[in-house]
From TrEMBL, chains A, B:
Gene3D superfamilies for the chain: Medium-chain alcohol dehydrogenases, catalytic domain, NAD(P)-binding Rossmann-like Domain
Protein name per the record: Alcohol dehydrogenase GroES domain protein
InterPro entries: ADH-like_C (IPR013149), ADH-like_N (IPR013154), ER (IPR020843), GroES-like_sf (IPR011032), NAD(P)-bd_dom_sf (IPR036291)
Coiled coil start-end: none
Key words, A-Z: NADP, Oxidoreductase
């Protein structure tokens, strides 16, 4: 099999004058070192965590595209007040796309790298919105016989995030979970994991149709934050499950604080658990997303044993160590088409990704909508 | 030595109709069990953490006193919107006062309890605003020969809090500290500890005279949050010290968020430390007080590796374990009149505590002002 000498890779640049630019660049085909492999990328998803980086907080409602094929360029304005937060990346053309899957078409000399040659693998490592990408062989997850690259494209971000939420729960001494934006692709996986593992999960959604998605999945606790009875329903569910850990995808506003208030109110129902400085059991909300970009507001009306903080998969995996990472990955490979199945709204070529109307579709991050980039599609 | 059959103890009650009531009640002298001792309380400080409980978030500007001597009663109104947070304590007459010192006048049968008989000890355990109090012998810290009850009255809350901040720093992998309201009695102790232990400390204050207090103590980093250059000064100091942990006494408003922003800006100055998801090193702010009762607002403009949370001494000590607690206490006893010396604005009898004007003085929590209750003073 002979490889082309060059390939196309997507880049995202924030310019000093406040513009987001996305376009394809031509790269030379690399030669893998001992422990590296080159993957011909066949499928790579657009996750919310990718969008944050690729669109650089620009205003996609004002995005426009020019040119066609490999020359298409997307531009979008960035509000001046956002620019200071982007200082560290100005005028750097960043490769984007955190995960993907495809066939290993070149491998370094090491036994492990060689063993992957010709195999369909999923990989994490950045720069996946490209026709090819070179990665460390250790960052590859060989798919089981019969599983396709499209089935394996989302093997890392959502599956490992959902599994790591349950791991975090165990490592930090909690016994049940609260999750917001709970009808998302990730939230559905989390429901399947919790049901399989016997972990109680309180699902928070905003809309009736999201309630229905979770009801169809067999979820036991579904709380709608748009209802007048939200706080009472939440306290009841937290009291029943004993959840003292929440993962919040929205990040902004009062939701994290409301969850802590509900945990405290639930604790106060148990005689003896309450002291004048609040309940003694630590109550934690991790913000792992920023669907709501407004400030986070905390009332602090929940005693002294509480925490709010950012949560990021790579940081968790680095802390948890190799043994945990290997265990979680092997579960993903085994349950790829069941627990961790993803479905996609549409498949896009690399050029489609740069179409302004298409950008607005994936930037909307609607529940149940998810896009798959197929870099081998004609551009 | 014969003990009286009854003694006076201060109580604080939040009534269902929104009133704070403080008054003395007569209690029967208890008989200590095996591991208990009875202390004749000679000196007990009014700490901010005591005030929060004793005044129950009432409006002390509208407080009034009636009666005299043992019959004096203090009342103050509580705003209706605060009442839900006080639900768990309604109509309970709570004993108050977290720490104090005095002479052991009765002891249970155990060897350790007997060994304390006649000794001057400091103790933590609640209900210290009283002429006598019964405590577990293990909660007593025998003062060194020659140290008085007044010198030992504040042996626990401030000394152990300051020491535990440095312990927390080490346990959680940080190497330098940021502290707010840094000219307080606690802040001054923290400066002495950090100087002795070679720990870099960034002191945040609001006023020129507070800067002066810390300059006189030999503090190296003193940042004034009222100055226009506050954020720049803070980033510079955090960059120089490498501080990634802060303890904030104010709790409300933007200060915690500003500290995290400064930590992130300092990290971004170090090439390689910055990724698109923010700096990788965990940045933490613990809120251990609530001088600012407004909501805490977080901008989240500091990546994903950050946390904000409540911090309470008893919760920390429970987590750190007995070995740590014993080590910290023994340091307090040894350095009681140097590192951990407290000075007091005024000495109050139990009846003085119930005088409305006096209440307003201690509720003001002015920097450098601290009151000592002497329950053996004539009421």
């Amino acid at each position: 099999m002979s490889l082309p000498s060059n390939y196309l890779q997507m880049r995202s640049t924030v310019t000093a004058d406040g513009e987001l630019k996305m376009n394809l660049v031509e790269k030379e085909m690399p030669t893998p070192k001992d422990n590296q492999v080159v993957i011909r990328i066949e499928a790579t998803p657009i996750n919310p965590s990718d969008i944050a980086v690729m669109l650089g907080l620009s205003d996609s409602s004002k995005a426009s595209s020019t040119g066609d094929g490999a020359d298409r360029v997307l531009t979008a304005p960035i509000a001046p007040q956002i620019m200071p937060a982007l200082k560290a990346r100005i005028d750097q053309a960043l490769p984007i796309g955190n995960e993907g899957a495809g066939v290993v078409v070149a491998a370094g000399a090491s036994d492990y790298a060689q063993s992957l040659m010709g195999k369909t693998v999923a990989a994490m490592g950045g720069g996946m919105y490209a026709q090819y990408q070179i990665v460390d062989a250790m960052n590859c997850l060989p798919l089981l016989e019969g599983n396709t690259a499209k089935e394996g494209a989302s093997s890392f971000v959502n599956p490992l995030t959902a599994l790591s939420m349950v791991e975090t729960m165990r490592m930090e001494g909690h016994t049940a979970l609260v999750h917001t934006a709970a009808a998302s692709n990730l939230g559905q996986m989390l429901n399947r994991i919790c049901q399989a593992d016997g972990v109680e999960l309180v699902n928070i959604v905003r809309k009736d149709e999201q309630e229905q998605i979770l009801r169809d999945l067999g979820a036991k606790y579904i709380i709608n934050s748009s209802k007048d009875t939200f706080m009472k329903d939440l306290v009841d569910a937290i009291h029943e499950t004993g959840a003292t850990l929440a993962f919040d995808a929205t990040g902004g506003g009062h939701l994290a604080s409301n969850i802590l208030s509900a945990m405290e109110a639930a604790a106060a129902r148990t005689p003896g658990a309450y002291s004048i400085y609040g309940s003694v059991k630590h109550k934690q909300v991790y913000l792992y997303g920023g669907l709501d970009t407004s400030q986070t507001t905390l009332s602090r009306g929940y005693g002294m044993a509480w925490g709010v903080g950012g949560w990021l998969l790579p940081n968790f995996l680095a802390k948890a160590g190799m043994e945990v990472a290997v265990r979680l990955r092997s579960r993903v490979a085994k349950e790829l088409t069941t627990t961790f199945a993803s479905s996609y709204t549409d498949e896009l070529s690399l050029t489609d990704m740069l179409d302004a109307d298409t950008v607005r579709r994936y930037d909307a991050k609607k529940t149940g909508e998810k896009f798959l980039v197929c870099p081998q599609m004609p551009i």
